[in-house]
Description:
This protein is an alpha/beta fold.
Amino acid sequence: MSPAGPQKRILLVIGGGIAAYKALELIRRLRERDIFVRVVMTGAAERFITKLSAESLAGSAVYSDLFALTNDQTMGHIELSRDADLIVAAPATADLLAKMAHGLAGDLASTLLLATDKKILLAPAMNVRMWLHPSTQRNVSLLQEDGVLFVGPEEGEMACGEYGPGRMSEPAAIITAIEQALEGETRIALPQGPRSPPARLLASRRVIVTSGPTHEPIDPVRFIANRSSGRQGHAIAAAAAAAGAEVVLISGPVALADPDGVTAIHVETARDMLKEVEAALPADIFIGVAAVADWRVAEPASVKLKRAPGQNLSLTLVQNPDILACVGKRGRGRPALVAGFAAESARLIENAEEKLAQKGCDVIVANDIAGGVFGATSNQAVILTKEGKEFLPRMSKQDLAKRLIALLAAMLAGKEQ
């Protein structure tokens, strides 16, 4: 189905990359919806597909040379950019993103993207390391702040043999994003750019945050724990308090001062933490940041275990309660929003998506522990909701905290409209 009203007009910019072949399918699907398509190809795109293929599917001329548009009988680059209802770049390469972010206009494609007052939708496609590189993520953030829309990239196998985010979205997903953009919608309702929540945005709201590790005793002097410093959880509690919320921070053992303006409760074990969380409910928002130990010793020793020559020690471990699932799957008394964190060493997106569904969460913040998350002052994360996901550039844990609180405040307001 094509959007209602007069025939819509798309200017499709095809960047250079193996994903350019998908652009031909995209053109075909757009034409099926009675959407007029005018195509511009970069020089690199012509290494992957031919102009003739694009022209045959679009039913109109394909442009690639900036200086060929000086003929009075052809459309100039200004007319090309302003004749469209929407400009779509698919695939949008790292080079194209960089040119857009910094206002460079050295070829026809980049010139069109700069010389327009129309909405722009980008479908990025590149190697996973290129996509995750800090410079690319900075460029994405700049473009998002400028109002540029994104669809994808998706996670999966790369043509180069690597795996991760960077695959261009499939034509069907791009079509959906195009139709939403033409109707004035955005792809996912995540706040764009590293913004802070306005002061008092969460006034009269109650927020519970868990932070730090838990310590599960083996004997009076030894315990099972993890490398969590509590910096991210404490930063989130501080950001929620700065936004006007009544904040209860339930923290495992950390070497951090309690943030100003919060009610801090200190615990040792996972069971202690769950008890305090349940006592602190009800709340508007629950944010489970604590790296709770999954297991505990079934029967901790009452005295210090002594080592004997040649003797090994076996411990029987049992599962700890899943605090995030206990809150997320509550019936009566469940907070309006439940957010959790997923620190993963493999299959980051798949594991985070499973956690989002299985634990009854509204938001999951996923990060790869290989990126030096534990104990660091910065974080690089992916925010997942039921509507979509957003890959964030590396930023301070304070900035990520503000970003998350802004998102949760917006989601809470949206639920109440």
